[in-house]
Amino acid sequence: MEYQWGKLTEELERKLPLDVLFGSDIIYNPEFLDDLLDAFTQLGATVIYLAHKTRFKPIEDNFFAKCEAQGFTVKRVHAAACTSYKPLEQVRIVRLTPTKKK
After folding, report:
1. Which of 2, 42, 44, 59 is the right S-S partner for 17, CB 3.0 to 4.6 Å?
2. Is 61 exposed, middle or buried (CB count within 10 Å of its CB: 0-12, 13-18, 19+)?
């Protein structure tokens, strides 16, 4: 299903909130990270998994700090827990979950 930044189709709106959202190599360009975070909030996923090779750690760390500030719990999922395939050791897998409100 296609999604354009900030634009929900009727079809997608009927399926919200999403159960799981997956992203791969989508946090390398700082120009779009605020839009990405807005999309995560708009789509209302129960859990979001992001996988990427660390390229710009300060940018990535800043993005995940913004996620926490917007009410997401950020937890790194270690690649070793997912597979014994050596090239994946360079991949950072992160799980975002909305913080439950009391």
Report:
1. 44
2. exposed
Of residues 5, 3, 48, the one with CA closest to residue 23: 48
DSSP state, residue 8: -
**Is the distance from CB of 77 to CB of 95 less than 8 angstroms?**
yes
pLDDT digits (tens, 9 = 90+) for 36-85: 999 998 888 889 999 988 888 899 999 999 999 999 999 998 665 556 66
Q: pTM of the prediction?
A: 0.82
Alpha carbons 76 and 95: distance in angstroms, whole number: 6
The two three-digit tokens of residue 86, written as one number = 């050596």
